[in-house]
Amino acid sequence: MFANHLPVHSVSGIFPAPFHAETAGVQILGIESSCDETGVALYDSDTGAVVHALHSQVALHREYGGVVPELASRDHVRHLLPLVDEVVTRAGIARSRIDAIAVTAGPGLAGALLVGCGVAAGIGHALRRPVIPIHHLEGHLLSPLLARPSPQFPFLCLLVSGGHTMLLHVYGPGRYALLGETLDDAAGEAFDKTAQLLGLEYPGGPEVSRLAEFGTPGAVRLPRPMRDQPNLDFSFSGLKTAVLTQVRKLGADDPCDQARADIARGFVDAVVDVLVGKALRALGQTGLTQLVVAGGVGANTQLRTALTETLGPRGVQVFYPPTDLCTDNGAMIAYAGWVRFSLADPGADEPLRVHPRWDLCKQSMER
What we know:
Layout: E1 27-32, E2 37-44, E3 50-56, H1 58-62, H2 69-91, E4 100-106, H3 110-127, E5 131-135, H4 136-142, E6 155-160, E7 165-172, E8 175-181, H5 187-197, H6 204-212, H7 237-250, H8 257-286, E9 290-294, H9 301-311, E10 317-319, H10 330-342, H11 360-366
Parallel strand pairs: 1-4, 4-5, 6-9, 9-10
Antiparallel strand pairs: 1-2, 2-3, 6-7, 7-8
């Protein structure tokens, strides 16, 4: 039943910022259900250990070529409680030892968020523990702090996922300033659309990256939207159109796999050039020397190589989450929950609401 679940992942080290001493030994249960991954985790602040499990819905949505919201919600209903049972059992603790429940409250699919928040509210009521609403993107941007080495505040965050592409100045926990974001499609969306145009299976992002490895550098030159503009915003819709133009040149019956690989390589190189160029400009403007890369696209090997080769010689340290925590997962929510708990910000005095659209920087300053 749990063949798709990630293994136990132990992490050494504690969040580097000074928090209240009474939070030592806190056990935070994290629940993530914003889209098509059902994630549950338990974070122990005393040891820094994370036990987490994940159920992927990839097979469920593959035949539709994308996420079907109603199917996603129903699948969360089927798997959330069994995953909670599994994680608590593997952690070897009694449920009464859980100190708080952290749950993704947004942004995301409304129905999927409601399932996660409903389960979290039920557990919180049964255990008489606070339920902490977590912004999905806050979970992503804090997740590199689960790795070692980890960054110190302040740092620049390049957050690249299926629905978001943005640059953030992270001053400290809960203190984020937006420097730039995509004006249309996110980088992850562009990857998925390119995969569809090239006839690749869902989920398309990893498939595009794999195909690009066989492409010839420079064989297909695609535009670098907004890379050389002085602002820190992004745009990827035009790049998708450029890919479509190249695919149409192949002809409907063109069997040339090399041509498709060359297009994939041209696309990946364009996206990577834009992301690296904007990150470099943001580092220059802010004077920061640490870059955190978070979100699913942050697992892209071409992006990681380019960032290392470009920023390393400039004295910039680049940090990533553990590889198995790049995509949506419960561990990042549990950890973000501990950060909020440590700041005495459980949100327990407010009704638990879902926020399909939720501004990260606005909510961070309001807390």
